[in-house]
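Hey L., structure's done. Input below.
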Amino acid sequence: MEHGYELLKACTNFFADFIIFSLLALYLCRLHLSPYRFKKDPVVKKSLKVFVKTYGCQMNERDSEMILSQLQCTGYELTDNEKIADVVILNTCSVREQAEIKALGKSGYLARKKRTNPNFKIGIVGCMAENLGEKLFKLNGAIDFVVGPKRLHELANVIEGNGPNLCIGDPEVRCPTHGFGRKLGKNQCSAFLSIMQGCNMRCSYCIVPKTRGIEQYRPMQDIVEEAKFLAENGIREITLLGQIVNNYGGRLMPMVDGKTPFVQLLEHLNALPWIERIRYMSPHPKNFSDDLILAHKNLPKLCPSVHLPIQSGSDRILAAMKRPYTREKILEIVEKLRSAVPDVGISTDIIVGYPGETEEDFEETVSLFDAVKFNMAFIFKYSPRAGTKSADLIDNVGDGEKERRNQILLQRVQETSSYYHRKFLGKTVEVLIEGHAKRGEDTMFGWTSNHCKVLVKASENNIGRIVPIRIDGFATTILSGTLVDSY
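Output:
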């Protein structure tokens, strides 16, 4: 009987200890992974200075912001001066070969510093880290750690030697997507806001599904709360980020009143005070729904600007790229957008020289350019990426021909962009002033809601304000004007 009593007592104590330990572990986990953990002012407990250099897309810029906030709040000192840094982190891109070459070249340059300072640390993070992994240590033996985009929340531990120096792939415990805090700059008035991670598409040329993984969506309320936090800290314009941003929610979130989850999110954000402008990128033509077009017409804070990456104007090449739409679909989207919002600015991405692209295929892309009249375009010469389906194809379009096609489209863009910007001459437009321009101390720069860059003589007091500017000059990609007298 006594033995049974002692056993019962031991079990009771064990379960009590287990519950206490579990609650403590849960608290510590929430403390570590809370989306707004990094809002608090950090206490500097280390003397190490960290510098982060960013390559690539807006998603990488947001990741770098999160890295800086994480490291600052775990005690590191941030610096904008690479020369005095104890740790240099290169946040890399793998979408284009040239981006990898630049980052590898930079890591080689940094390796020279290590010869005189063995305590100096070099880190490679981001998409190239995920894509090349252990190969990076072989390419440059001076690299100290490699961390993929899905493991950035482990970066502080890796730097301190409390985790593996190769940290790629999916984490054992999945971290809340992009929920980490903000490192906002002085007078910053616009910010990126990640709403999802990864991509479920399988475009034949694209490395993103390998480096970023499958689609994961942040809870809508978490996104709204972060937007509120940004607004409370001076942000007036937010840009929603996702590999296929308009597929937010996928099939995991329901339609409501015939509206997709992405449009529902836009409506919630449009209702927030202080947030004055909302942008998003990059959408996919496949998911460009009628309710999104209607949102552009009905939501006053949703900017009349759309980046629509078409990649090619040839149906044959689009099919080879595994892009599930046609040129007619693009023309239909553009027609509906311009019908709903006549002054909408539309930009795009194009790849020239994809394997098998004939002159006839290329001319179809040119004709689509002429039909749409994009006000901006980013033209890329195809380069095979290891790990993609197109890497197995014969790259049968020569470098010279790729360059010729590239130049033809660049010339088209200059013409259509000049045409678009010329329309603003003599008009007064509202511009969000973001900061000092590179030319002249008293020259500021800002953006119209259509995403046209504007230069203006104005005081620093206007940073973060939307002000009326009368446009009296233009170039291919930029406007210049005069602040209206009342301001």
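The first helix runs from residue 2 to 33. DSSP finds 14 helices and 19 strands in the chain.

-- N.
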